[in-house]
Amino acid sequence: MKDKKGFFPKQFIERYEKFIPDFDDFLDVMLEPLPRVFRINKLKAVPDDVLPMLDDLHPEPLPYIPFAYQVKNGAGLGRRLFHFLGLIYIQEAASMIPPLILDPKPNEWVLDLAAAPGSKTTQMSAMMENKGLLIANDLSYHRLRGLIGNIDRMGCLNVLVCRSDGILLARKMPALFNRVLVDAPCSSEGTIRKSNQALLRWSIRGIEQFSRVQKGLICAGYQLLKPGGRMVYSTCTIAPEENEMVLAYLLKRFPEAEILPIAVPGLRTRPALREWNGEHFPLPVGHCQRILPQDNNTEAFFVALIRKPVCAAN
Predict the structure, then answer these.
(1) Average pLDDT, consecutive stretches of 10 residues, N- to C-terminus, the chain (314 residues)
(2) Residues annotated as part of the active site
(3) DSSP secondary structure string, 174-207?
(4) Would you say 36 and 74 are in contact if contact means Cβ atoms under 8 Å apart?
(5) All domains in the chain, ordered by first residue
């Protein structure tokens, strides 16, 4: 255990062993590489078209995500022709959960507020069957190239790419969308299994800075919703400041907002925290869910489903 704990910053250990009861298991899995996972792009293919080409990798379906598969050895998967043609998209399993929870429908107006590099945008476009309007927004000019490339490769014809500050969008287009995804920029603690860069950049100060950005984005996302519309807020991090505290802030700003229960059959999740560092969260925050890496062999994720009441003001 000493060697495992020595790999992580002392403050990281002190913070998260407080509320992760199986903390040894958590650390063990965080030091293991992620399994290779992909989803079949149903805009271009069906499983019977693709799976025979992957016989050598022995793909196994993920029970909780349609069209998603895990392979034993995915080295070189991104260099194969069917990936280049957009028949598959390599995407971490927990990353596919927020669109699954949001459940965008054909012919709806949907916004992906922080879309780059486009994993969730292309997933939602396929769920919408290329019908309706899906706006993929990102503030970073440098990330737009990858976003546009993925949208084109996957054959997403209902996507409009936009570069704007999310708060500015909320001022210009309030109450316009049926569904909004706020997959917020974060400290990315959940991605440590993929790369230790997140761990090298990790700091309490960074968490606090991200929390301020996230509070602005979740409020902007809520304002962009039509009355009756739904929003998913998600991060790939563990920090309560970036998760439960952000939801508590939303409820303070918009007390009428409804946080809905979440359940994905076949996926093990854990309820959100009820308090952190002496701050007790409103009861509805308990409906949010945490995905820990040791439960499903994935990245860590946090997911919340929010509904704007029909009677809410624009």
Answers:
(1) 76 96 96 94 95 91 96 86 95 98 98 98 98 97 95 98 96 96 97 90 96 98 98 98 98 98 96 96 98 98 97 70
(2) 236
(3) TT-EEEEEEE-----GGGGGT-THHHHT--HHHH
(4) yes
(5) 2-32+92-307 (3.40.50.150), 33-90 (3.30.70.1170)
